[in-house]
Amino acid sequence: MPSFVYLASQSPRRRQLLEQIGVDHRLLIAQDDDPEPQDPEALELVLARESATDYVQRVTGLKLDAALARLERRGLDAAPVLCSDTTVSLGRQILGKPETPQQAREMLQALSGKTHRVLTAVALQSGRKRLTTLSVSSVQFAPMDAAQIDAYVASGEPMGKAGAYGVQGRAAAYIVKISGSYSGIMGLPVFETANLLRAAGFAI
Length: 204
What we know:
Blueprint: E1 5-7, H1 12-20, E2 25-27, H2 40-43, H3 52-74, E3 81-90, E4 93-95, H4 101-111, E5 115-126, E6 129-141, H5 146-154, E7 175-179, H6 182-186, H7 190-199
Helix pairs in contact: 4-5
């Protein structure tokens, strides 16, 4: 039975969710002096006519490949490697992480008063076996006026988050309804992830 899993993510929320279900983990993330084969930000570029489902699963797989190369390059102890990626979809439009406060405002204006989807893909490499799963949830936002959007953007919370909001933060004040996985919207669907880890031999 594996004693720990490598988590290939800088997200403190994913760490928190693994801790919640008692999974011992070690971070396996890029460092400044790492000769990464590809810019991590470049991995998140959307391809032409790519659906949100295809996009989030493809990006998760690429991030897992990069993490496995990192593991081998560093000569670390063998253990399963877990990777996850989250995206927000409004109709056919994919909303990634805003790069500027103005982009965050535009995303929040688009989401205001509408229902959107949150897709989180999870991939686990255990030896030669790759296990994957996908969580799809819907989130209904209340209408937000310009002053409310500006105040939320000024808090800094939207930056670095898909769709420019965090369900576990101040944005909760504008969320009318959630259908699906709350933890999936946070960034790591606990039920689905636990099933992958059980399939890899973890006792959960």
